[in-house]
Specification:
This protein is mainly alpha-helical and 166 residues long. Helices cover 84% and strands 0% of the residues. It folds into two domains: 1-43; 53-165, no CATH class. The protein contains seven helices and no strands.
């Protein structure tokens, strides 16, 4: 029969083991909760961000952009409006700023790239191609670097997906 010291040691070992298992379990649950909170936060940010696309100011901007027949016509009009300090220049800048903000959110983890790809996909690349002559005329890709980077990343992702599908 074990002496009292061995019995106390055995009981203490069991208590420590149970406590360690409980702590590990709590850490796993906490990690899952953090992940769920992050996913929820990203979903909320995405919902708010993509709702802006359909809000009246952005609809006004998209209608104005659509009134120009080509990327070059858009560039020329933007430069003309900027030179005259017309209200239209600020209306047009809304879309560029929108995509720059989306690029910043994606780059800094505020929104997941795969979510952006699922919601916009090739349309993001198309918008960049529409705006690229304007951005170049305004000073190059350094003027809207996050929009440019996100468009390049999306172009690669959509090209890879198209290649994989074929």
């Amino acid at each position: 029969m074990p002496n009292w010291a061995e019995q106390v040691t055995a009981v203490a070992t069991v208590v420590i083991a149970v406590g360690a298992v409980g702590a590990i379990g709590a850490a796993v649950v906490a990690g899952q909760q953090v992940r769920e909170v992050r996913i929820g936060r990203q979903a909320e940010v995405a919902s708010d961000f993509f709702t802006r696309w359909s809000d009246a100011p952005m609809v006004e901007t998209r209608r104005l952009v659509a009134s120009y027949g080509s990327p070059e016509e858009l560039r020329d009009a933007l430069l003309r409006h900027v030179a005259a300090n017309d209200t239209e220049a600020y209306v047009l800048f809304r879309e560029l700023d929108y995509f720059e903000q989306l690029g910043a959110l994606e780059e800094h983890g505020g929104i997941d790239f795969e979510l952006v790809r699922a919601l916009l996909g090739r349309r993001l690349v198309d918008r960049w191609q529409l705006w690229e002559p304007s951005v170049t005329a305004l000073g190059g890709q350094n003027v809207y670097p996050l929009f440019a980077r996100l468009a390049r990343k999306m172009e690669k992702a959509t090209a890879a997906a198209a290649t994989a599908a074929n």
